[in-house]
C-alpha cells in the first residue's frame, strides 16, 4: 500500500458535463502529480502541484484544472467532458518538488472515468 | 518519436523463466529510470529506481541502464504467475516536472 487514496473508484458522466476527482496524498508529501492513462497506454502527465501552487503542466487544455489543499488532499477538475477523456486518472504523491534528486512518485489506485 | 519507447507485448513465458523487459529513450537529459508494475485496474506500483547507468538488484528483479545506448532493461528471475502484470518503464530529468512513461509491456507467466 502506498498510502495514496483516490475517490471515487469509478465514475460515469456524459459529454459536456463536469467532473471532480479527489486524491489524498501520503502525509508529508508536498507534491502531487496527476496523470491520465488511456486504455493500453502509459500514464500521461497532466500537471503537478507543489505546496498548493501549480508548478508544471503537460499538454492538456485549460479545461483540466486542479487544486491542492494544506491537508495533503487534492482535486482534478475536468470541464466540458469529451468522449476522449474516458481513461484511468492517477494521482501520484512525492516528498519534494522538482529540485529533488530522489523524487520518487507513489501512485494511487486511480479513478476510472467513462464519458458517454 | 516518443521520448520513451516500449514494446507493448503481450509477452507469455512459462513459470520459472527469466524475463527480459526493455525500453529505449531519446532524451539525453534523463537521469532517473523507474520500473513500475501495474496489475489490471490498479495504479502503478514502484519496483525499481535507478540513477544514471549501471545495475541495481532487488530480490528476483534486476534493473539495468545503459546511457550510451539509451537502453533500459528489467530482468525477472524465476518468474511466477503472480508476476503477470503490465510493466511500465519511466524516465525523469532532474529539474523537470514529470515522469515520461512507456506504453507498458503486458507479461503473462504461465503456471
What sequence of helices (H) and strands (E) makes up the elements of chain B? EEEEEEEEEEE
Q: How much is the radius of gyration of chain B in Å?
A: 13 Å
Largest sheet of chain A: 7 strands, mixed
Taken from the alpha-carbon principal axes, the silhouette of chain A is globular
Stretches of chain A where pLDDT is under 50 for at least 5 consecutive residues are none
Beta-strand portion of chain B reads over 45%
Give the overall pLDDT of chain A as a whole number.
Answer: 90
* Total number of strands of chain B: 11
How far apart are the termini of chain A?
32 Å
Largest interface: A-B, 33 and 28 residues
Keywords:
heterodimer; A: 116 residues; mainly beta; 7-stranded mixed beta sheet; 4-stranded antiparallel beta sheet; 0% helix; B: 111 residues; 6-stranded mixed beta sheet; 5-stranded antiparallel beta sheet
What's the quick description here?
Chain A contains no helices and eleven strands. With 116 residues, chain A is mainly β.
General description of the model:
The complex is a heterodimer of chains A (116) and B (111). With 116 residues, chain A is an all-beta fold. Chain A has strands at residues 5-7, 10-13, 19-24, 31-37, 44-50, 53-57, 64-68, 73-78, 87-94, 106-107, 111-115. Chain A is built from no helices and 11 strands. In chain A, the strands form 2 sheets. In chain A, strands 2, 4, 5, 6, 9, 10 and 11 form a 7-stranded mixed sheet that branches. In chain A, strands 1-3-8-7 form a 4-stranded antiparallel sheet, with no helix packed on it. In chain A, a hairpin with a 6-residue loop joins strand 4 and strand 5. The radius of gyration of chain A is 13 Å and the shape is globular. Chain B has 111 residues and is mainly β. The mean pLDDT of chain B is 91. In chain B, strands 2, 4, 5, 9, 10 and 11 form a 6-stranded mixed sheet that branches. A 5-stranded antiparallel sheet of chain B has the order 1-3-8-7-6, with no helix packed on it. In chain B, 0% of the residues lie in helices and 55% in strands. Chain B has no helices and 11 strands.
Amino acid at each position: 500500500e502506498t498510502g495514496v487514496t483516490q475517490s471515487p473508484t469509478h465514475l460515469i458522466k456524459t459529454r459536456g458535463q463536469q467532473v471532480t476527482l479527489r486524491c489524498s496524498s501520503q502525509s508529508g508529501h508536498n507534491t502531487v502529480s496527476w496523470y491520465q492513462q488511456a486504455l493500453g497506454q502509459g500514464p500521461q502527465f497532466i500537471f503537478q502541484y507543489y505546496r498548493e501552487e501549480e508548478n508544471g503542466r503537460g499538454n492538456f487544455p485549460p479545461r483540466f484544472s486542479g487544486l491542492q489543499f494544506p491537508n495533503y488532499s487534492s482535486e482534478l477538475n475536468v470541464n466540458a467532458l469529451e468522449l476522449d477523456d474516458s481513461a484511468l486518472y492517477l494521482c501520484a504523491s512525492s516528498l519534494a518538488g522538482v529540485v529533488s534528486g530522489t523524487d520518487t512518485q507513489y501512485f494511487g489506485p486511480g479513478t476510472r472515468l467513462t464519458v458517454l | 518519436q516518443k521520448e520513451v519507447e516500449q514494446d507493448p507485448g503481450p509477452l507469455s513465458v512459462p513459470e520459472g523463466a527469466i524475463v527480459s523487459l526493455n525500453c529505449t529513450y531519446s532524451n539525453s537529459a534523463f537521469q532517473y529510470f523507474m520500473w513500475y508494475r501495474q496489475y489490471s485496474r490498479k495504479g502503478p506500483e514502484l519496483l525499481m529506481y535507478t540513477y544514471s547507468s549501471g545495475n541495481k538488484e532487488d530480490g528476483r528483479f534486476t534493473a539495468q541502464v545503459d546511457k550510451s545506448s539509451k537502453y533500459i532493461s528489467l530482468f525477472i528471475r524465476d518468474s511466477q504467475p503472480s508476476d503477470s502484470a503490465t510493466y511500465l518503464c519511466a524516465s525523469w530529468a532532474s529539474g523537470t516536472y514529470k515522469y515520461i512513461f512507456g506504453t507498458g509491456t503486458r507479461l503473462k507467466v504461465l503456471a
